[in-house]
Structure formats: structure tokens, C-alpha cells
Write a structure and sequence with these properties.
Helix content is 64%, strand content 4%. The chain is mainly alpha-helical and 256 residues long. α6 crosses α9. β1 and β2 form a beta hairpin. 6% of the residues are buried. It has a three-stranded antiparallel beta sheet with strand order 2-1-3. It starts with 8 loop residues before the first helix and ends in a 6-residue tail after the last helix. It has nine helices and three strands.
């Protein structure tokens, strides 16, 4: 074998078409023991290894080229999964301490609200008391006006009665003045008869109802004392009527 002549690689793969007419030698080259130990890489093995390498590179590329969104979503899911576990795994002592602090804060807020409510109620009572005092003063000024006072006793009218001369007095005051004289205390006109004024009495009673209990009791006590003398006053009134009839008959004004 000529050392300068190359070995036909197609012959080595058993695919040479030229046969003995091939320019390259169809003899296997001599090789040493070290060459026997080395693996002979044929074209097919090289191509197959190359294809495997390309496939592995493609697989790695596809793995690396996956979208990161999926990984992010998985990471968020993992975080969401771990968070409730952390809250669940919290020791009960921390929960109890947290609840106690919240309860203390609520108790403080309730106490503050109660104190504010009490102060508002106190202010409301004071305002109502002040308003009631103003109303009582207004009613007292109206009630103690000269139009609602008797000129004889200088008190509020109790059963106001109107004389023939249009002067008004208490019924009890008229009866007492008639025991002394039968003339009007103001105009000195002779008293013939008097009539009970119901409208004025109703107005006075309504005004007395708006007054404090102290004034109402005083008015009722005076009315009760004067009511005790009413039978005697009625007897005296009947005697005066009889005396007037006798006087008129004697003077010839009444025919018997």
C-alpha cells in the first residue's frame, strides 16, 4: 500500500461505487494498539451524535424560552398558599393578646361615649330648666297683670264677678264688701246685682295650669278657704234681696 495514497472513506463505509477503479486505496490502513482503543467515528455515528446534540439544544432552548408569566403565577400561587398557612400556624397566644387589646380599646371608647352622653343630658336638663323658668316668668307676668287682679284683695281673680257698673271683683270680695256697704268700691255706685264671668275664669284657670306647682297650690288653697264661706255669703245675699224688695215696696216701686 502506497502511504501517499489515501484510503477511500466510502470503502470503509462499504458504499464505494467505483470498486477497483477507485483512485483511493481499498485497503485498511495499518493502525497501532492505541488506535484500536480509540473509537472509530463513522459518518453515521457523527451525524447521529450531531442530531442528538441539536435535539438536546432545542429541548433546552424550548425549556428556557417558556414564558415567565407562568412561573410568576406559580410563584404568586405559592405565596398565596403559604400566607394562609402562616396565619393559621400563628400561635393562639398572639390571637388572645390581640383580642384583649381590641377589647380594652372598645371599653375605652364606650366609656368616652357614656361620659359624653351624660354631659349632653346634663346640658339638656339645664336648658329645659332655664326654659321652664323663662316660661314661668312669662306666665307670671301675664297672670299678675292688672287686668287679672282683684282691686279689693289684689290677688288673681277667684270666681270673677261683674257688677252693674262693669267693674269686676272676686265673688267673695263682693260679698264681704256688701256686708259693709252696698256701693261699688271704685265708682261708689249702688250695687243691685252681680253676675259670674265664666270666660274670664276659664282664661285664668288655663294660665294657672301653666304655672309651677307652688303657685297652683296657693291658688287652690285660697279658693278652698273662700268656698267654705260660700253658704254664709248665700244667706246674706238672700237677706239682701228680701231687704231690697221690702225697700222697693215701701217706696211704691213694686205692687204687692
Amino acid at each position: 500500500m502506497n502511504p501517499e495514497q489515501k484510503v477511500c472513506k466510502y470503502y470503509l463505509r462499504k458504499s464505494c461505487r467505483y470498486g477497483d477503479q477507485c483512485f483511493n486505496s481499498h485497503e485498511k490502513p495499518p493502525h497501532s494498539k492505541q488506535d484500536d482503543d480509540k473509537p472509530i467515528l463513522t459518518f453515521e455515528v457523527a451525524t447521529s451524535s450531531k442530531q442528538q446534540r441539536e435535539q438536546s439544544e432545542n429541548v433546552q432552548q424550548t425549556l428556557t424560552n417558556k414564558p415567565t408569566e407562568h412561573a410568576d403565577s406559580k410563584s404568586t400561587e405559592n405565596v398565596n398558599k403559604t400566607q394562609p398557612n402562616e396565619s393559621i400556624n400563628t400561635p393562639p397566644e398572639l390571637d388572645i393578646s390581640k383580642l384583649t387589646t381590641e377589647m380594652k380599646n372598645l371599653v375605652k371608647k364606650i366609656n368616652i361615649l357614656e361620659t359624653s352622653v351624660n354631659t349632653l343630658r346634663k346640658q339638656l336638663r339645664e336648658q329645659q330648666r332655664a326654659n321652664s323658668d323663662l316660661i314661668n316668668e312669662l306666665n307670671a307676668t301675664q297672670l299678675h297683670d292688672e287686668d287679672f287682679k282683684c282691686p279689693i284683695c289684689f290677688e288673681v281673680f277667684i270666681r270673677p264677678s261683674l257688677l252693674d257698673c262693669s267693674h269686676m271683683f272676686c265673688e267673695w270680695c263682693i260679698d264681704k264688701s256688701l256686708e259693709i256697704s252696698d256701693h261699688c268700691p271704685i265708682c261708689r255706685e249702688r250695687i243691685i246685682d252681680y253676675s259670674y264671668c265664666l270666660n274670664t275664669d276659664n282664661i285664668i284657670k288655663r294660665m294657672i295650669g301653666l304655672m309651677p306647682e307652688k303657685d297652683q297650690k296657693r291658688y287652690k288653697n285660697v279658693a278652698a278657704l273662700r268656698a267654705k264661706d260660700k253658704p254664709k255669703s248665700l244667706e246674706l245675699r238672700a237677706l239682701r234681696v228680701q231687704f231690697e224688695l221690702v225697700r222697693l215696696t215701701l217706696n211704691g216701686y213694686v205692687a204687692l
